[in-house]
Amino acid sequence: MKLKYNFVVRQVGDRMVAVAVGADNAKFNGMINLNETGEFIFSLLAEDTNIEAIVSALTTKYDISEDDAKKAAEGFISKLKEGGILAE
Amino acid sequence: MRCLIADFLIDFKNRYGFTARQCAEYECEKDAPVDFEVVATDADIQQERLHAEREYPIGYLENICLYRNLALQLPKKDSFLMHGSVISVKDKGIAFLARSGTGKTTHTLLWKQRFGEDMTIINGDKPIIRFSEDGTPYAYGTPWAGKEGFQVNSKTELTDICFIERADENSIERIIPQKALNPLMNQILVPSDPIAAMKTLELIDRLLKHTRLWIIHCNPYPEAAEVASDAIFGKAAK
Question: Residue B28: which domain range?
């Protein structure tokens, strides 16, 4: 799975915000609020990847258990799917 | 035609008369390098025609395309287009933002009723926000001013941003930038060019830091402007 669109990500106020750019700007005219792990997972999804690889990256970067990483990844990914911005 | 809008020298390559008439008050013959050259291609106009809900004259469609194409370039020079109404009253520059149809214009007019000659509507619909070199945000009048056409060729320092929400009882609350982010982003055109998009986010970040942010819960009656303006001007609530 990977993100359907191209995004730029930047801090605005005390939030990280992603907005679609390029030809995708017209297709996804909204913004996504990201927390720290969300931002990390979001950046991983710029290329095609899978949940296992994301969980590995999370456990390495944040020194958290595999269970916690899986929960975080699945929660965030389901939100992206709901938003219709994730391609299987 | 050349215009001076938001202190930018802009060369509109308009082919139809509508824009020439609409921008007449902003025309500027100054012979200097332009800040922006703005073109609306036949493809842009055709695209606009396809998206319009009704049939419009071509000069009007060109006019919409020109303003959008200008808006997409503005972030390069520390500015952007914001959908909202901006007024100047006493020492404050106040923006009212809301989803279309919420009552932004009604609320603006209630303030006008209250403050009369002490208040100017800088632009009732699509002002340009531009940051000065020291980082202060200013709202500028533009010829694009919505159906009522409220605008003056002038500017005001933007001190307060208010999000308008309908309510039965009037009240106003000060909010933190985090809470203002979503409704503010909804009223700003983010360009598709990645560099301009990133710049727009940077400018929004600056705007949130430099202004006081409010939600005005209001009904369409004069008391709405009293409650909101008393809080903004620091008068104690009743």
Answer: 2-77
A8, A13, A26 member nearest B197 (Cβ): A8
**Residue B60 — very low, low, confident or very high, per pLDDT cuts 50/70/90?**
very high
Number of domains in chain B: 2
Q: Choosing among A8, A34, A35, which should be mutated to test the B contact, i.e. which has the most B CBs within 10 A?
A: A8
pTM score, two decimals? 0.91
Which ipTM was obtained for this model? 0.84
Nearest by Cα to B93 from B114, B116, B133, B121: B121
A32-42 tens-digit pLDDT? 889 989 999 99
Q: Single out the residue in B48, B77, B106 at which a domain terminates.
A: B77
Residue B157 maps to a domain: yes
**Residue B237 domain flag:** no
Looking at residue B188, which CATH number applies to its domain?
3.90.228.20
Q: Does B192 contact A at CB distance below 8 Å?
A: yes
Chain B closest-CA separation from residue A8 CA (Å): 6
To which residue do tokens 């050259």 refer?
B37
Residue B114 lies in a domain: yes
Q: Whole-angstrom Cα distance, residue B123 to residue B83?
A: 10
